[in-house]
Structure formats: C-alpha cells, structure tokens
Amino acid sequence: RHGSRFHLEKEDYSNVLGMFQKADSAGVLSATGKTVMGKVARILQLSDGRLGELTPLGARQHRGIAERMYRNFPEIFADSTEVDARSTNVVRCILSMTAGCLRLQALNPQLRIFNDASLHDMYYMNYYDKHLYSLCADSKAEIVKEFKLRHIHPERLMKVLFTDDVYVRNEVQPSVLMWSLFYIAMNMQSHDEKDLDFYDVFTAQECYDLWSCWNVFWYLEAGDTPLTQRMMPYKESNLLWNIIETADRCIRKKHSGATLRFGHEVCLLPLAVLMELGDCGYVTEDMETLAEHWQCQRYFPMASNI
Known about the structure:
Elements: H1 11-25, H2 31-46, H3 56-72, E1 82-87, H4 91-107, E2 112-116, H5 122-125, H6 130-151, H7 155-161, H8 165-171, H9 174-187, H10 204-222, H11 237-252, E3 257-262, H12 265-274
Parallel strand pairs: 1-2, 1-3
Helix pairs in contact: 1-2, 1-9, 3-4, 6-10
C-alpha cells in the first residue's frame, strides 16, 4: 500500500471546521473547542493543493520498506537483477514506488529497474467489479449504520467542545461531528506535525468505540463473511493470479528477478484475506465480537506490504 497521505477530500477537514466556526460566531465554543478549531484550520491549510497526496513521512516509509527488503533478500537484489515495478495510476502510489525504487537503486546501482503506471495494468492492479461493489455496498451501509448507533456516544464530547446544550441540540449533529473529528485524528499519524494531535479530546473508550466502527466497515469491505456471501476477497483474484504467474516466470529464469506492485488498501486488504495470511481470513457474522479476533489496522496500515 502507498505510504502515509493527506485525506482525499477537502470536506474531510472543511466540514468540521465549518461546524466549529459557526459555533464560534455564536459564542458557544469552549476554550477546548477553540483550540481544536485552530488545529483543524491548520491541517486544512497544510492540505491545500495536496489532497490525497503522499506526505514526506509516506516517502520515508517506502524507502524503509525497500531497504529492509534489500537487506532481508540479498540474493534477489544482487548484481544486475531486473526489477519490474508497477503502480496504480494514482500519484501517491507512483511516488511511493519512486521512493522505494530510488532507495533500491542507491543500495545497488547495478539494478535494472523498470517503472510503469498505466491503465493497461488496472485489471489486476486495481480492479473494479461492479457486482461485488454493489453486493458490498448494499450489505455494508445498513450494518455499519446500526453498529454506529450502538457504539457512538457523543454526549460527553459535545460538553467539552461547546458551552450551550441548546445550541448543540438545534445546530449540531453530534454523532456526525464526533465521527468526522475522529477521522481527522486517525490520520494525523501520517504527518510530521506532532503538535496537531486530536486524541486528547477523546476518552480511551470513545477511541475504541469509534475504531470498532471502522473495523466493521473494513471487515465488510474485504473480509471473509457470510454477510457479503464470502465474496469480497475475490475482488483481488486477478492480482493473485498475476502474482502466481509472474512468480512462475521468475522461477523459470536462470537469473533472479523481482516484481513489485504499489497500490491501495482496497487492494491489499482483500488480497491478504484471499491469501488467508495469518488470521486475516477470520469468518464471522457477529460484528459485536469481531474486534476480539480481527483488527483492521494490523493488516493494512499506511505503507503496509505483503
């Protein structure tokens, strides 16, 4: 998966900021609310023109992956080995590939590295299956909605951020604001600006509950569950076949070689489940106990790799 990135949409930041600014204009924002508003404004400013792009940390992560790969498999990256690196045609993936390949080239200048990022390869690099997408969307929407209703409790947080309960009741969507603010908080680990931390306004239980909603979301998106007819992992069947076929070709060659693929979490997670790596292939219909057995961040953090 590509390295750490900015959020994809301006609204991921601006919607939260707008709610805070409106409350500030009405004079009902607490001191903590004003601090949080300032942090959101700053990350929105940092994201200007960079939505969805790789952060400096994201590039460093892929240089690190490349170096560990080189040190762990010296017999592959020796002499003038051919390295065939493919990326989806999205900038953050291309830059992740570039960062990794430049590090490999620096470690061994003799390597013959080929880079490509083309629609030609999207049938296995980032395949879109309309049937599976519809099946997932139909099942996921209602289940996640019901799970959120049971697990998101914004009452305490609203009292921390605002000074007027009546205003909150009439002008704020508490669950939406809490969810959206946590979405920003989660991705701040993608940045080097360590002073822009939002976790201090949440309790540990609130963080766990909000995360568990995302865990259910991703399990339904890619997990092996009867709730989606156990079909979601097969979104990456083309990619798995490509890995098998290219590995066979490498084995038949007289000289070692490497084929690298740089994509997204929506590719890597169902691939890991399809391959049944570790406990990725856990099967259940019980979303209330899912987190005890399957935790999404273990399988596809930013710059994760198989």
